[in-house]
Amino acid sequence: MKFLVTGGAGFIGSAVVRYIIQHTNDSVINLDKLTYAGNLANVACSSNSDRYFFEQVDICDRSELERVFEQHQPDIVMHLAAESHVDRSIDGPSVFIETNIVGTYTLLEVARGYWQRLSDHKKSIFRLHHVSTDEVYGDLDGTDTFFTEDTPYAPSSPYSASKASSDHLVRAWNRTFELPTLITNCSNNYGPYHFPEKLIPLMILNALEGKPLPVYGKGNQVRDWLYVEDHARALYLVATKGLVGETYNIGGHNEKQNIEVVHAICDVLQELRPQKDSYRDLITYVADRPGHDLRYAIDATKIGHELGWLPLESFNSGIRKTIQWYLENQEWSKSIQSGSYQRERLGVKL
Predict the structure, then answer these.
(1) Side-chain-facing half-sphere of 307: CA atoms under 13 Å
(2) Catalytic residue among 32, 55, 75, 135
(3) Which value, in Å, is the radius of gyration of the alpha carbons in the chain?
(4) What is the pLDDT of residues 214-245, one digit of tens each?
(5) CATH class of 2-343
(6) Which residue, 76, 156, 163, 261, has most beta carbons within 10 Å?
(7) Do the Cβ atoms of 246 and 185 come closer than 8 Å?
(8) Cα–Cα distance between 18 and 340 in angstroms, integer?
(9) Predicted TM-score (pTM) above 0.85
């Protein structure tokens, strides 16, 4: 099979690329615009494979997308290219509208035209798998309810609203044009190669540098944490075994308050990189984010029952692996912090 992965130099996309190259015999076309969140170092370990190809393309560029489809003839499209940081969406929503909504529309139209020209056999194989977020559902009341695939959408931020819009477009193209699509909605990811603006890598790197660990509000926001390599395995399974037109929620079965996550990071760091003063002393509480959702929690029963997927990592094992990775890959983090990664195009194969 030949996979076209959009956003394949980003955090989750690069995990998908690495999974396909390392654990299957399939080929990957990594299509990425290389914005601030795209880093070819994330896929450097895969770039020497003769089954890996890179295309620096904006998903809003229709003519370039059409060229990529015709040149590479993908069997499966996994759409992960997106603007994804809530704080950035509050500061500047327009790029989220452009990439997440217009970009998804452009990809759908190019994929539809390509799919309609395929032979009957190739048509029957083709899939477009759209990767989304649990944030489209809004937040949950109490502690005993969970997001299911039938939960009504109620997005709270410009980011989640743009992702909800893209989900609706994908469903419409499936129903109206019969384009063979699937959708997954995942909980909060963490793991290696996570861009340092997000909670877990920010806390790790700030702690190592003795900087404050900023926690929104009281830190009582609850998230379900999913190790990114578990997520990549689930995404490949859905793309290859999932039923066309279906939605699958993917969760880590690891609900934690944000302050619990920060405490866990501090405690593991104290074990692995001990210092005289506790890392917890660096915790500072800052004004809460506008419209901050209180609790997300995924019911991942469907993907477990229908496709046999379960996460392999607990939060304790996953956070330890994540912290160990950051300790062993400080040059990667330094290249992000200095901006040098944007000047280096590592492992490019055109």
Answers:
(1) 24
(2) 135
(3) 20
(4) 999 999 999 999 999 999 999 999 999 999 99
(5) alpha beta
(6) 163
(7) no
(8) 23
(9) yes
